Amino acid sequence: MGQAIVLDGKRVGAEIRQAVGREVEAYLSAHGRRPGLAVVLVGNDPASEIYVRNKRRACEDAHMHSVQRRLPETATTDDVVAVVRALNQDPQIHGILVQLPVPRHVDSRRVLAELSPDKDVDGLTETNLGRLAAGQAGLRPCTPMGVLAILDRYDIPLSGRRAVVVGRSRLVGLPLALLLMARDATVTVVHSRTADPVRVVRDAEIVAVAAGRPQMVTREWIRPGAAVVDVGINRTPQGLVGDVEAGVAEVAGYLTPVPGGVGPMTIAGLLRNTWQAFLAQEADRT
Ligand code: NAD
């Protein structure tokens, strides 16, 4: 085998962001209104600070209104809920994102339960996950959407193909498995209790890894020619690494880099969701 084709999330993400930005600009000049995204950040997690800054910048580049609500590490669940309730009512805000993880003493379930499903641009509320599971329209989680968008951009077919998702989290693995199934892939989910994960993954034509385990997936796991999407972002003493080891590039047909793969696609997904949420709320106004 040669070298896998790089699934360039940085480039594809930028294309999507620019396309959304053009739509926002056109709408703004025609109607004088634009989408607003609020990011709620509790505490001082350094990785979250970077994510929030990047999201804010992307929002502004796409001509959207962007606000940040910062709460101290000592904020209570009630404090966060109060902020979310105020944003639910704010007509300038069409998307709300509560940056996870929140400090341990904050009950993230209760916070998410307060979030208006119409403004839930992370697709994390029970309502939106339920809509996804039931095959109804709704806001989908950004990272899984980004995974599908990059596979689509490189014309990698999904229908009828064997896809394995490694990880079953509410944020990534579970919704990704549902989205792939909705696109007619034959989906298997591998998780921390799976017996012989290598055998299962090796059978797949499409592999998406979201385990949060640095370089866990090695070349032996991968079927030659498979499309491999590495969702993992792990901070190690050697720097930022994914869940997939570099040697996989010699076996796979396609591979996302880390960084520059799924990360920028997630931000692009967030902008798309904010635009979608805005249009739905505009339609409700009239
Ligand atoms: P999580 O810890 O909530 O879930 C990890 C999942 O992996 C669990 O379902 C678990 O069963 C499974 N798992 C753990 N060890 C395993 C093993 N040895 N074999 C098989 N499965 C195993 O994590 P998450 O929130 O889903 O995130 C996963 C990774 O993706 C993390 O590295 C995170 O930083 C990254 N992430 C990246 C983006 C992005 O924009 N690129 C977005 C979200 C998360």
Strand order of the largest sheet: 1-11-8-7-5-6
**What percent of the residues sit in helical stretches (DSSP H or I)?**
40-55%
- pLDDT below 50 for ≥5 consecutive residues: which ranges? none
Helix count equals 9
Number of E-type strands? 11
Distance between the termini: 57 Å
The biggest sheet amounts to: 6 strands, parallel
The chain-level mean pLDDT equals 97
* Bound small molecules, deduplicated: nicotinamide-adenine-dinucleotide
Secondary-structure class: alpha/beta
Instruction: Spell the H/E element sequence.
Output: EHEHEHEHHHEHEHEEEEEH
> Overall 3D geometry?
globular
Q: What value does the Rg take, in angstroms? A: 19 Å
Percent strand: 15-25%
